[in-house]
Design brief:
Strand order of the largest sheet: 1-2-4-3-5-6-11-12
Number of helices: 10
Distance between the termini: 26 Å
Largest sheet: 8 strands, mixed
Radius of gyration: 18 Å
Amino acid sequence: MADDGFIVRRVTSQDGLSLYVRDYPGPAGGADTPLLCLGGLTRNSKDFAGVAKFHSRQRRVICPDTRGRGFSEYDSNWRNYDPAVYIGDVRHILCALGIHGVVVLGTSMGGLMGMGMAAALPGALKGLVLNDVGPIVRRKDLDVIVDYMKSPPTLASWDDAGQHLKKWFDGVYPIASDDGWTRAARLSYVERADGIITFDWDPDLVKPILADDTETHDFWHLFTACGRIPVLTVRGAKSNILDVTQMDQMTVLHPNMRTVTVAGVGHAPGLAEPESVEALNGFLKQF
């Protein structure tokens, strides 16, 4: 058991990759539905440390590093960096850990994976939290993120990493100090054995995006598959990924969806904001 309350698990994917999983076991004999936390495009399990530690007082919490991120193995075939493959990995993780039903908390891409599970693993998905993502994904809204991904830095210090992150995302996150940016960088950068600090993901993650010229991806069919389960959607008030119009359309289509908007935040809320905490705590009480 790590000091932060989790057990490190290793699960082998269907095609032989080693996947890293943080397993917060929760109380002995706890009957609440486990929480599965799925990160965004370049994110990893560290994003959910606070959420997982808090909610593991009541339930088991599972936080994997998606293949190609964090401590999970990188894939030699970049075409496997695809949400359909990731959902297959989730299936293997749940089977390996003996988990039959979960509430998914998905940030950005992780939310799309959650919607996909409603179609691919309907028996396993009991509820879904969409953190700043909806059924429509527009390529133009990803331009800044894609440009950021295309040029992995080689940085000499964690303060440099913080400044690198600030250069790209100042104004998106309400981070007021250089120390805050340095702390944020530690969640998505890594120090290699040679002392160089760079992105904590496979640089090839950007290749499927660059190879796809689709301007708008439409996943309304996956969102519709979520109609049988409770959904909570969290939106950053300054987000360009999930706009008000799209969230209003989701509300009309899903009568059992709650929503919350986090003031002053872009894509995506960190889930430690008071509005996010209150909404998530209330939502999970039903599971």
